[in-house]
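I had to read the description of the data format several times before I understood it. For illustration, here is how one protein appears when written out as sequence plus structure tokens:
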Amino acid sequence: MSLVACGNTDVEPGETTSNQEQTDNSGSEVKPSEKPEQSDEKLGTFSKSATLAETVMVDEDGVKITATGLNYTNYSVELELTIENNCGKDLSFISGSVGYSCNSINGYMVSDGYLNCDVTNGKKANDSISFSYDGLMLYGINEIADIEIGFDISDNDYNHTYSGPRQVKTSAFDAHNYSKNYYQETIISRAAMNTYARLSQSKIGQLVGVPQSSIYRYEQGQSTPSPKTFRWYADYFDVSLDYLFGRTDDPHGAQYGCRPKYETLNPEMEKFVEMCFDPNSRMNERLKETLLAMLTEEVKSE
């Protein structure tokens, strides 16, 4: 017999509760008519104590990329790089783009970390890759233990070399607990809701279409959401159901692959797209890659 049939209209259809009569952490009964007190807890501050010793990330075919340290600003942490090019050709170095992105921090794939740096043959350049504190904290990352960066290295003839993820470890690496799922714990926490989304339990309940007390029980681990509610959480926080169900540590999903998004079919097509954009604009670089991917898919479908 379902709890709804017993008259408990405070339980959504499909919700699985651990006990018919719920209690809060203090042992007090939570009745359907009550509105449990909502925590005003917020996420803490980002730790800026981790340091990075100089580390060579790439040293192949006349190309050398060295991570020289971490720089903490008011809003982000920057991975500082020195890029040396002695391969005989002018090169472009891109990371975190639409076409190639496999950057991660503490084992979690992140959307930050864009780099676009041109280095003339025989020269070297200093650049940095930035990660915002707000974005990292939402992943449950409050300190940098390691960073993995993938580089797309190309010459003027549009020959691309993909480095694959290259890892650097900070002073916090050995003490970091990689077995703990920080992201899954943080993304549905009341602290994250209060800090970023500013969503109250009652507001979430209105958006999902369930009572506030159901949201309270989810957050206290007293019940399991229905499939409908799981889908809402996945859509709202832009994560996969695979991740919410603990099948993978990657928010993108168990089947997500780190690979280029398109294959070049026609070098002339790339040259045409290159002519349409300002090569010195980082935003235009993103638009250029998106357009090239769209044109490539169009050719494949013909």
